[in-house]
Predict the 3D structure of the following.
Amino acid sequence: MSMRPEDILALTPSGICCKPGSFHIDPTRPVERALITHAHSDHARAGHGAVLATQETLDLMRLRYGDGFAGTTQAIGYGERVKLGNAEVTFHPAGHVLGSAQIAVVADGLRVVASGDYKNVADPTCAPFELVPCDVFITEATFALPVFRHGDPDEQIAKLLHSVALFPERAHLVGAYSLGKAQRLIALLRKVGYEAPVYLHGAMEKITSYYAGRGVALGELRAVRGASKADLTGTIAICPPGALNDVWTRRFPEPVAAFASGWMRVRARARQHGVELPLVISDHADWGGLIATIAATGAGEIWVTHGQEDALVHWCVTRGLKARPLDIVGYGDEDDDGDEAQG
Ligand SMILES: [Zn+2]
Ligand SMILES: [Zn+2]
């Protein structure tokens, strides 16, 4: 009897479980052995017995949760093979944030790829997405509606710099998620030659200096803490999206509120967040990216997790692919997939 995909990976109350390998992928509850795709808090939780992840993901988890975040840890490089029980696993770049990985599980000749969150767009802060041919592809669906076309991030950076030039007496405050988006924004600014110091909200400092230590070129960074209103005139400062409507913003001279997110494609969202300057920059694949990736994997069967599952499942079925939603409870608390929750 040969194995079916459901015998390799199955949904349990703790998340996706590999019975033949005795491990879970991105479990939402504490488990004995966890394989983690990336360090966003909805995928990477503290309290597992053993964690297998890339070195960057382990480091970022340690930065956020402290040394005791797991019983034991093991680092795995991209492309390295590890045998776990009757399964073999490899990690491949997901292009989402530093250290992010898709996890390929092979058992009985069948290959299932759990992609975690991913984007097939160049990002100066992480390794580019790698296409992994497979039999079953597990995809996210954060922006899985045709209306979501993220476009060129450089155009959004140009929009930001145009506004900075237009209002030299004001400060530009850009809301961005503190792991991944903030650092990508700074790297994109540097790429087009913006050399002025970029100011950081305190919540961004540790992770951003970790990125810089891993060789991501971020230029001169300064803490907002301790800077005067005069210091902040004409500058760009990055803060968590939640800080945009906080008393914290009073230290800035007439701040222009910007927000970098895939959701900024929807004008009502920008208004709802009180955002004057919406920047459509996402660390997730847009609709075109999702369907192109699904087709390119050659997978005959697609499982869809967190986001707008219905439209993507429907698209797959019309293309003759087997597809079903995986209703995982507990994803989407951080980064772009968390915007829904913030309302
Ligand atoms: Zn993520
Ligand atoms: Zn996610």
